[in-house]
């Protein structure tokens, strides 16, 4: 029998979907700013593996020579990014959702098992609640990264007024590098996130819009069974 | 007056109907929000450019936001006792990075140059480099920050702007809200809010790395204002004015924030 099971509270769906376009705009306007001094690359032992960014990439996205425009967008949408993040964090704390989200002691060990399962190396995944161990780590890390972006952002935005933030980040120069690296982190997160969402299927995706999952539950026997979830193999 | 209404007996929806209904509602709302967000973005992206005045080149709503945000942070955090971090002299770059010299190309012999300070009374002070160099000298080694994103630890020396105000008795002028500075040929110009101008680390600099400024760096006298991005550090000062309205500013006319404070 089909049963509606509540999964994602309205506020978590709201902040998730609001964040998506805002973060997109922040990354885009951030690139307009970064272009003006695009000095970062991944270089090991004298060999440059990736240069951020190649000219064809800039031209494709119409990035060049839009620094002032980028700053104007970045310094407006930073408000929405920050406020939306604060709203999400407050909600998870007040509602108790944080219990589903924060990694537990066992999460770090279990995350490997989840990974092996997802890569089809292991057959079974560890039992989980709303989120599995790898999700707990990922969804907590992304919030920490968000806080990191706000702090490193403020550290390079107002390094004199918020000198203590700049100091925490290891100085102005390093803060800009962290701010950039975090953005690369979002992009990597996004890629994995999208793959996982596709693999998880429609029901999972729908639940992030409508809030509920549809699960098939066996009809309950008249006598309450204490372990109702596990009655499949009783032949 | 309260009367208990008899509860309406509704036929309970089947589970399939409930699922359909909730899906319909949530996807409709989601679609409506997504469409209006996209519409809002289109509106902002295509919004008209501001009318060029003291500032220009930005989309009108973004300029408003930029000004408001900057004022918010100034009121929240600006404090003249917040000093820019300084470094040991030995950490200063030997070759100081050079970006542009709009308004300060080539060489200007110091003997052919006088700093003009326009006082409130209408009087114009003509000040020679020697007079400025006779004032107490202040040195600073700090991390110069360009709006483009690069930074470099540099060593500069000159007279503190606040000492300059003191010496030339510009106290009345210093009560106004802004200082305007322009190159002798008027090609480059900046407007500085008074609190930043009077910041104890703001210098009228004539030396870098212990030698007189060269042509690339705004000889004979330039502004070094560590609480601002490089774009405000005017090279080769020709005139200084004071006002209660924002003086014209080269980069603010091209879409950059007027205050450009750090």
Please provide a brief summary of the model.
Chain A has 235 residues and is mainly alpha-helical. Chain A contains 9 helices and 4 strands, in the order E-H-E-E-H-H-H-H-H-H-H-H-E.
Task: Please characterize this protein's 3D structure.
The complex is a heterodimer of chains A (235) and B (262). Chain A has helices at residues 10-34, 55-60, 67-95, 98-101, 107-118, 133-157, 163-168, 172-200, 202-210; strands at residues 2-6, 41-44, 47-51, 212-216. Chain A has 235 residues and is mainly alpha-helical. In chain A, the strands form two sheets. A two-stranded antiparallel sheet of chain A has the order 1-4. In chain A, strands 2-3 form a two-stranded antiparallel ribbon. In chain A, helix 1 (10-34) packs antiparallel against helix 3 (67-95). The radius of gyration of chain A is 22 Å and the shape is elongated. In chain B, strand 5 (178-182) and strand 6 form a beta hairpin. The radius of gyration of chain B is 28 Å and the shape is elongated. The model of chain B has no long low-confidence stretch (mean pLDDT 93). Chain A binds chain B through residues 1-4, 17, 21, 25, 33-34, 36-37, 39, 67-69, 71-73, 75-76, 79, 157-163, 166, 171-173, 176, 206, 209-212, 214, and chain B through 15-16, 18-19, 22-23, 25-27, 30, 33-34, 37, 41, 57-59, 62-63, 65-66, 69, 73, 76-79, 82-85, 143, 145-151, 226-227, 251, 254-257, 261-262.
Query: What fold name goes in the CATH topology slot of one domain in chain B?
Result: Sulfite Oxidase, Chain A, domain 2
Largest Cβ-defined interface: A-B, 39 and 48 residues
* Helix content range of chain A: 55-70%
* CATH A-level architecture of one domain in chain B: Alpha-Beta Complex
Could you name the CATH homologous superfamily of chain A?
Transmembrane di-heme cytochromes, Chain C
Q: What low-confidence regions of chain A span 5 or more consecutive residues with pLDDT below 50?
A: 228-235
Structural class of chain A: mainly alpha
What is the 3D shape of chain B?
A: elongated
CATH class of chain A: Mainly Alpha
CA gyration radius of chain B, whole angstroms:
28 Å
Order of helices and strands of chain A: EHEEHHHHHHHHE
Regarding quaternary structure, what we see is heterodimer
């Amino acid at each position: 029998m089909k049963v509606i099971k509540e999964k994602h509270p309205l506020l978590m769906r709201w902040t998730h979907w609001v964040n998506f376009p805002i973060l997109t705009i922040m990354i885009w306007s951030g690139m307009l700013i970064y272009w003006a001094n695009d000095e970062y690359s991944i270089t090991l032992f004298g060999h440059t593996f990736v240069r951020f960014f190649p000219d064809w990439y800039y031209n494709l996205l119409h990035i060049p020579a839009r620094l002032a425009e980028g700053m104007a967008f970045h310094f407006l949408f930073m408000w929405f990014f920050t406020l939306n993040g604060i709203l999400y964090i407050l909600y998870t704390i007040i509602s108790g959702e944080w219990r589903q989200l924060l990694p537990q002691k066992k999460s770090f060990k279990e995350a490997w098992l989840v990974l092996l399962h997802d890569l089809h190396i292991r057959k079974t995944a560890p039992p989980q609640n709303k989120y599995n161990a790898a999700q707990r780590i990922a969804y907590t890390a992304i919030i920490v990264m968000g806080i990191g972006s706000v702090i490193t952002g403020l550290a390079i935005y107002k390094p004199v007024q918020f000198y203590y933030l700049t100091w925490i980040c290891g100085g102005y120069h390093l803060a800009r590098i962290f701010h950039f690296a975090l953005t690369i982190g979002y992009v990597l997160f996004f890629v994995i996130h999208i793959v996982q969402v596709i693999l998880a299927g429609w029901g999972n995706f729908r639940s992030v819009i409508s809030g509920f999952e549809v699960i098939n539950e066996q009809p309950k026997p008249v006598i309450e069974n204490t372990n109702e979830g596990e009655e499949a193999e009783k032949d | 007056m309260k009367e208990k209404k008899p509860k309406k007996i509704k036929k309970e929806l089947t589970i399939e109907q409930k699922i359909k209904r909730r899906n319909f509602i949530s996807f409709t709302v989601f679609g409506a929000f997504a469409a209006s967000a996209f519409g809002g973005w289109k509106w902002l992206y295509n919004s008209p450019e501001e009318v060029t005045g003291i500032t220009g080149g930005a989309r009108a709503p973004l300029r408003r936001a930029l000004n408001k945000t900057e004022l918010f942070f100034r009121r929240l955090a600006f404090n003249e006792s917040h000093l820019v971090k300084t470094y040991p002299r030995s950490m200063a770059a030997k070759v100081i990075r050079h970006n542009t010299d709009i308004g300060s190309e080539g060489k200007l012999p110091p003997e052919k140059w006088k700093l003009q300070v326009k006082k409130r009374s209408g009087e114009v002070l003509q000040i020679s480099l020697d007079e400025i160099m006779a004032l107490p000298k202040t040195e600073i080694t700090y991390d110069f920050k360009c709006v483009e994103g690069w930074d470099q630890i540099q060593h500069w020396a000159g007279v503190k702007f606040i000492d300059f105000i003191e010496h030339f008795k510009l106290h009345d002028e210093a009560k106004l809200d802004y200082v305007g500075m322009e190159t002798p040929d008027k090609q480059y110009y900046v407007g500085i809010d008074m609190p930043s101008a009077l910041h104890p680390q703001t210098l009228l600099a004539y030396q870098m790395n212990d030698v007189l400024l060269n042509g690339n760096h705004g000889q004979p006298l330039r502004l070094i204002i560590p609480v601002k991005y490089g774009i405000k550090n005017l090279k080769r000062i020709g005139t200084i004015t004071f006002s209660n309205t924002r003086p014209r500013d080269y980069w603010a006319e091209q879409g950059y924030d007027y205050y450009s404070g750090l």
